[in-house]
Amino acid sequence: TGDDLVEVLNYTRALDKEPNEDLFGIAEGKNIIVISLESTQNFVINSTVNGQEITPFLNEFIEESYYFDNFYHQTGQGKTSDSEFLLDNSLYPLGRGAVFFTHAGNEYLSLSKLLKENNYFVAALHPNNKTFWNRNMMYESLGYDRFYNLEDYDVTEENSVGWGLKDVDFFEQSIQYLKEMPEPYFAKFITLTNHHPFLLNEEDMYIQPYDSSSEILNRYFTTVRYEDEAVKTFIERLKEEGLYEDSIIIMYGDHYGISEKHNEALGEYFDKEITPFDVVELQKVPLIIHIPGQTGETLSTLGGQIDLKPTILHLLGIEKETDIHFGQDLFSPEKDNFVIFRDGRFVTDEFVYTTGTFYDVETGEPIDVPNGEQYIQRAIDELNYSDQIIYGDLFRFYNMETGRIVE
Ligand code: GP9
Ligand code: MN
């Protein structure tokens, strides 16, 4: 019932932080282009393989953007769909299964709905079957206006690899759709080529595979490099079409691409043994926010995908006191340094908690944290509150206009 929501509300309201005065509203009314970078982990940024850059374009692009290099994915078994769920709701995905499948009929206080209230046209673009991850149903609940899916793309033997339409073709074919959208729009592009098992046609290999004990890792670098090229081409096309100058562009990695099964090969790449501490570090994904007229900066603010919604809302100058979310504006000077993974691991500015042990965030050495239990409990509580909202479909009992609980 609505009573269950009272405690949750007390918790989330205490999390809320004041926006950054300089950036609040800077993106007001502008088009927003979001790019979900499939399986893209942060370690590929500004790194090389066989002496060649893995992401030459992104390395340049981050120089003129806000680049968050201490930002984590928080997905579970729902993978890409979990990252979308985090972005739209600033709620945690579920510990088991995919919330896109299990709770697509719930009431949500989504980013999409708030954007629509503010006159935005909200679209998702992804050249896969619309039922994959139950997206057609969930997008309906979240309030998307349009889902450009497999049916909207011309997919052939020649322009596909692995999971489907190649990213370059996906972006190219999407330009026409962007042009027809009512403005301002929020358009979320979900890339696909850099997906396990990282297959690529010979002509799309801009770098040679790595040489380690894992074919998966070896190929991963080549598909990340291809994705980088696809994004570069897309940005160039946006410029040609006059769609670039006045748009906010947000890119983030959806989740890891290289699982722990490949730790030995990763160890060869990093030339060290991969510890549980390193595994946590490896869950960092890039977050890049390009705002026209802003010089940009690399920010090491600790954050995660849960923070995307409040961050975007503040950039747009939307401050809805009655909204319920677990994340915080990444630009807020008051941002908490606490990132919780779906499985209960967490990171603060002092330590990492994983496999029952605290590690010093600087040295990676195990440390003793006297009040460690409190932190462990906070992570458990926060995940529980979020779960309660989803399992109880608690937003049914909430009126966002008044901030009151309804029966
Ligand atoms: C499928 C794409 C990839 O449509 O989003 O899904 P993933 O396996 O990464 O969740
Ligand atoms: Mn994915």
UniProtKB/TrEMBL annotation:
Domain Sulfatase N-terminal per the UniProt entry, residue ranges: 30-318
Transcription regulation as UniProt keyword: no
Binding of Mn(2+), residues: 38, 80, 254-255
Source taxon at top rank: Bacteria
Membrane topology: Multi-pass membrane protein
UniProt keyword terms in alphabetical order: Cell membrane, Manganese, Membrane, Metal-binding, Transmembrane, Transmembrane helix
Primary location group: membrane
Binding site for substrate: 195
GO cellular component, one term: plasma membrane
Molecular-function GO terms, alphabetical: metal ion binding
Compartment(s): Cell membrane
Ribonucleoprotein in keyword set: no
Active site residues per record: 80
Family: Belongs to the LTA synthase family.
Stated name of the protein: LTA synthase family protein
Source organism of this protein record: Fervidibacillus albus
Source organism phylogeny: Bacteria, Bacillati, Bacillota, Bacilli, Bacillales
